[in-house]
Amino acid sequence: MQADGSFNHAIALKTGPNVITITATDLVGNVATVTRNVTYDNRPPVTAITVGLPQYIGADGTLYIQGSTPVTLSATDDAAGVQKTEYRIDGGAWLDYTPFVIPMEGSHVIAYRSTDTVGNREPEKVLHVIVDGTSPVAAVNVAIRNTRHRVIFM
Fold first, then answer.
1. Contact by Cβ (8 Å): 131, 105
2. Strand ranges, E, within the chain
3. pTM, full prediction
4. Is the pLDDT of residue 151 over 80?
C-alpha cells in the first residue's frame, strides 16, 4: 500500500467479461466494497466482404465484375464491438466504409480492415477483382455463292 492509501495489484483477466470486486478495510474497521464489470478484449474484429451481381468467376478463380457491381463489408467483434470499418482501392487512402462500386475498368485490389472500440485492428485483407464493362463484339461473315435463292438477313 502507498502512503496515500492507494495500491497496485496485478490480476489475471479472462478474455471477455470479468467482474472485479475490491474490498478495503481501514484501521478502525470501516469497510468499503467496489465492484466493476470489465471486458478484456485482445482480439480484433473479423470483416467479411460480399461482392454483388453481376459477377463471373473464371475457371482460374479470377473474379470479374462490372462497374455497377456493389461491394459490401460486414464486421463482427465478440467483445468490445466494432468501432470502424475501412477500405481502399489499389493502395489509395483508407476510406470509412459505405457500400461502394468500382467504376474504373481493369484489375483492382480491394483492401479492407476493421478496428474495435478498444483499438484492436484487424490485419488488412485483400480481394483482387477485374472490372469489365466492355460489351463483346459480335460479327457474322457470310459468303454468298452464285445462287438462285433470295438471302434475307435479319
1. yes
2. 16-25, 31-40, 46-51, 55-57, 63-65, 71-76, 82-89, 95-96, 106-116, 125-131
3. 0.74
4. no
10, amino acid identity: A
Sequence ranges of the domains in the chain: 46-131
- Provide, rounded to the nearest whole percent, the portion of the chain with pLDDT above 70: 92
pLDDT for 146 beyond 70: no
| Distance in Å from the first CA to the final CA of the chain | 96
With contact defined as beta carbons under 8 Å apart, do 61 and 100 qualify? no
Residue 132 has what pLDDT?
A: 95
Report, as an integer, the average pLDDT of 85-91.
98
Q: Which fold has domain 46-131?
A: Immunoglobulin-like (2.60.40)
% helix / strand / coil in the chain, to the nearest 5? Answer: 0, 45, 55
Contact 121, 89 (CB under 8 A): no
